[in-house]
Design a protein that fits this description.
This protein is about 75% helix and about 5% strand. The protein is mainly alpha-helical.
């Protein structure tokens, strides 16, 4: 049993790590809040004084704000649907006995470890390019005209890239959940004459509900800050300017740190609203 002295020693040893972690999180947040209330233009005199809520009003009333929100949600929702649906199917497939099962699982999970910038460049040049890309070559084989994916289909292209990156994560979580499923339930349902589709819908899917909500929570929080894939492919053109890309333009391209910081505060608020909603959803599933 831990004594008072041992608990005090443990707190003392943990203190440096806790202080470092709090500083790593709080310092950028405090600086963002500070700059959001300042009229800070690095190339036009630096700090030009207190701006009040002007930066917040200008950011939310700009013509780019709501289209950026719409672009962000389009990419997030599209990628979530693909990763969850195909994640379930891949997890079911990988759970079946097969030759080289370990190697196949490693290959399926590998894209998750590719950097977003590299992923964006690879997809843009090797798959989506209308001249030398893989999809263009396949179209030519069937006598079809290659599609200018980045120009003509920017949102499907970005959703495909983001889904490819996050599908391994969803598959891994869902595969772990499937492996914890009691096989006796499936065997009993099979003996009762339940067809495979009904066994999947009434036994497997309810069992995966908790894992699906966890995937939904984690992927949504990270996908809300999607940036590198857009920078490497469309550069915000063709209506694909997301909220984080809009902030990037305000800070680095327009050199308006105050306006970009106000956008950062809006992003934090949006992420917290989504996180609270999803956490309640996860909590209900875990209590069920």
């Amino acid at each position: 049993m831990a004594t008072k002295a041992s608990r005090s020693a443990a707190r003392l040893m943990m203190a440096p790590a806790v202080i470092l972690l709090l500083g790593w999180m709080l310092v950028p947040l405090i600086m963002t809040l500070w700059f959001s209330f300042r009229n800070y233009l690095p190339l036009k005199g630096g700090d030009l004084g207190f701006a009040g809520f002007d930066n917040f009003i200008r950011f939310v009333t700009s013509t780019s704000f709501w289209p950026a929100i719409g672009a962000t949600m389009t990419i997030v929702v599209g990628a979530l649907v693909i990763t969850i649906v195909f994640g379930v199917l891949l997890a079911l497939l990988l759970d079946q006995p097969m030759w080289g099962q370990g190697i196949v699982r490693i290959l399926v999970i590998a894209p998750f470890f590719v950097m977003p910038t590299v992923s964006g460049l690879v997809w843009k040049n090797m798959f989506l390019d209308s001249v030398n890309g893989l999809f263009a070559q396949i179209a030519k084989m069937f006598g079809a005209t290659p599609v200018e994916w980045i120009i003509d289909q920017p949102f499907p292209s970005l959703i495909l890239i983001v889904s490819w990156q996050w599908l391994p994560f969803a598959t891994l979580i869902l595969l772990t959940a499937i492996q914890s499923l009691d096989s006796e339930q499936l065997e009993a349902a099979e003996m009762d004459g339940a067809p495979p589709l009904k066994r999947f819908w009434y036994i497997t899917i309810p069992h995966l509900s908790r894992a699906i909500t966890v995937v939904l929570l984690i992927e949504t929080i990270f996908m809300l800050s999607i940036f590198a894939e857009i920078k490497m492919t469309t550069a915000g053109a063709f209506g694909t300017k997301t909220l984080t890309y809009l902030i990037y333009q305000r800070v680095l391209e327009s050199q308006n740190v105050g306006l970009g910081s106000a956008g950062g505060v809006y992003t934090i608020i949006l992420a917290n609203i989504v996180a609270i909603f999803l956490m309640r959803l996860v909590g209900k599933n875990l209590d069920a």
